[in-house]
Amino acid sequence: SIREAALKSARELRARSLSELEEELKSISDGKLTEMKEEAARIEEQGRREAEKLKALGEKNFEKVVEEVMRFIREPGGAPR
Fold first, then answer.
1. pLDDT at 14
2. 31-63 per-position pLDDT tens digit
């Protein structure tokens, strides 16, 4: 009958629509996950670079302090012997 055919067609359409929506949602979700992973990698790399700069700066400052102390020790009257 026409009614049964219409109901069958409606069910098929609804099932196909749900399937398409699920696929689209998964695609969007996967895309967002990829974006988040890329952003996390960028942030991690930026943090690593900043840490290296700070470490280098700290080492340079430490070297300056050691040089100043050594200069003070070597100066006449700079440090009691």
1. 86
2. 999 999 999 999 999 999 999 999 999 999 999
Rounded to 5°, angle at Cα 80 from 77 and 81: 115
Q: Which two tokens stand for residue 39?
A: 């952003």
Beta-carbon-side half-sphere exposure of residue 51 (alpha carbons within 13 Å): 6
Task: Give 80's contacts (C-beta < 8 A, 6+ positions apart).
Answer: none
Find the DSSP H helices in the chain: 2-74
Residue owning tokens 């969007």 = 28
* Helix (H) / strand (E) containing 1: none
| Phi, psi values for residue 54, rounded to 5° | -65, -40
- Residue in the structure block whose two tokens are 């790399």: 45
Whether the CB-CB separation of 72 and 79 falls below 8 Å is answered with yes
pTM: 0.55
Euclidean distance between CA atoms 77 and 74, whole angstroms = 8
